[in-house]
Amino acid sequence: MKAQTMKRLRVLLVDDEPDLLDLLELDMARMGLDSERAASVAQARSRLEQAAFDLCLTDMRLPDGIGLDIVRYIVDHAPATPVAVITAFGSAENAVAALKAGAFDYVEKPVTPEKVRSLVRSALKAPEVDVGGGVLRPLVGDSPPMRQVRALIEKVARSQAPVFITGETGTGKEVAARQIHHFSARAASPFIPVNCGAIPENLMESEFFGYRKGAFTGAEAERDGFFQAARGGTLFLDEVADLPLAMQVKLLRAIQEKSVRRVGGINEESVDVRLISASHQDLQAAVSAGRFRHDLFYRLNVIEIRMPALRERREDLPELTAFILERLSDQRTGPLPELRDSALAALARYEFPGNVRELENILERGLALAEGRVIDLADLNLAPLEEAGGGDQQGHAGLQVFLDDLEKQAIQDALAKTGHNKTAAARLLGVTFRSLRYRMERLGME
After folding, report:
1. In this structure, how many other beta carbons lie within 10 angstroms of the beta carbon of residue 82?
2. Which long-range contacts (CB under 8 A, 24 or more apart) does 335-340 make?
3. Which of its termini does the chain have fewer beta carbons within 10 Å around, N or C?
4. Are 98 and 85 spatial neighbours (Cβ–Cβ below 8 Å)?
């Protein structure tokens, strides 16, 4: 353990300006870090092939290419090495491109020692992503959409890039945000969730940025805002589309400057937070309608994660219901409750406008109404919910029959091609064996 503590970390510095390299090397030395320098993309690749580095800091413009070439090379050949990019002042496009390519973070010119030290400290404490680690609330399901979501979460967790999570109400946007935080370098620091639609407009600035004593009537002591509370951690802005335009301007400045000014304060204070935002609304449509600033949209929507609706991953229903019932039964004694086949079949046909959150409510009601350990269809009380759609349900039923016929034909073709080998047919269809079995049961093919 002592030997590991005494090991000097190594940083690769890439720039074609000798004066800037001299300053960066001096900063590294003052931080107790070893450094090597490269003046081009080719030299940087050569250094990376010869030795391992704990961090790479590269300029965006180089004689034989751009910094993104180095970012992509490191992502492909040394993914454990965080890489940051130096961009021209005000070049938001370059910063966004670097983050999307896999950069850990970026620093704008002029490059000051304070900016460099803050970035280096943040990058070098980034741990390896341990995808086997547990979280309090997992994303349950093995359907292709959920596998894609989990893979994207694991990829963006090491980055500092802002993430925008979109999806219908009840699809698990906050669960995804907490997982990104859990797998990131900021896991030991606070995760602060904020429901932007629940804060009165006249209190927004003080809630987000804090206030000084005496700033307004009732401000009897200095108080931190959400940004200060999330310092070093993650600030999750849920339903960010509900922010009024005046607050959007202030939020944009805080993101750009990485600092905030308390209400009633004079000086700005730096804040180190990672922003994750979410909304069930179409944010691009809100921009087009003039309800959301386009410059803030591009700052927040660097990496987008779309949470699938429950009706798009019906094959996850058996696993989801089992997980939810187990969690709801934590306080009970005796065997776990289970759904009767007819109840599960009814859930498979249901549209779930409220998605996973609605499924939880339905199962909690069924658990309360069930007389024994088996939940019947009547216990779920689905009929009133199904009737609530009126004529739209009939139109959907026709479409559902058509889609079911297409799905059944695809499965039959795959089974015919594989000699009715279900494992091979699942592979041919691009789904898991369990997913294929569930689909066949739902379609009455077993």
Report:
1. 27
2. 335/373, 336/373, 337/367, 337/370, 337/373, 337/374, 337/375, 338/373, 338/374, 338/375, 339/366, 339/374, 339/375, 340/374, 340/375, 340/376, 340/377
3. N
4. yes
DSSP class per residue in 51-84: S--SEEEEESEETTEEHHHHHHHHHHH-TTS-EE
Decide: residue 19, CB within 10 A, 0-12 exposed, 13-18 middle, 19+ buried.
exposed
CATH class of 144-306: alpha beta
CATH superfamily of 10-124: Response regulator (3.40.50.2300)
Q: Tens digit of pLDDT for each residue in 303-314?
A: 999 999 999 999
Phi, psi of 238, rounded to the nearest 5 degrees: -85, 145
Q: What are phi and psi of 306, to 5 degrees?
A: -100, 120
- Determine the Cα–Cα distance for residues 273 and 263; give it in Å rounded to an integer: 19
How far CA 88 is from CA of 85, 110, 123, in Å, comes to: 10, 8, 20
Lowest mean pLDDT segment, chosen from 23-32, 94-103, 347-356: 94-103
Q: Pick from 27, 26, 46, 47: which is nearest to 36 by CA?
A: 47
Question: What average pLDDT does the structure give for the chain?
Answer: 83
Residues 6+ apart with CB under 8 A from 77: 48
Nearest one of 101, 93, 248 to 84, comparing CA atoms: 101
Give residue 306's pLDDT.
95
- Let me know how long the chain is: 446
Tell whether pTM > 0.70.
Answer: no
The full DSSP string for 299-327 is HH-SEEEEPPPGGGGGGGHHHHHHHHHHH
For strands 34-38 and 55-59, give the pairing.
Answer: unpaired
pLDDT digits (tens, 9 = 90+) for 77-110: 887 788 989 887 566 677 777 887 888 788 888 8
CATH topology of domain 311-442: Helicase, Ruva Protein; domain 3 (1.10.8)
Write out the two tokens for 36. Answer: 């090597």
What kind and span of H or E run contains 163? strand 163-166
What order of strands is seen across the sheet that includes strand 34-38? 34-38, 10-14, 55-59, 83-87, 105-108
Residue with tokens 């700033």: 215
Q: Report how far residue 241's alpha carbon sits from residue 245's, in angstroms, rounded to the nearest whole number.
A: 10
- Type of residue found at 51: A
Q: How many CB atoms lie within 10 A of CB 385?
A: 16
- Domain boundaries, given as residue ranges, for the chain: 10-124, 144-306, 311-442
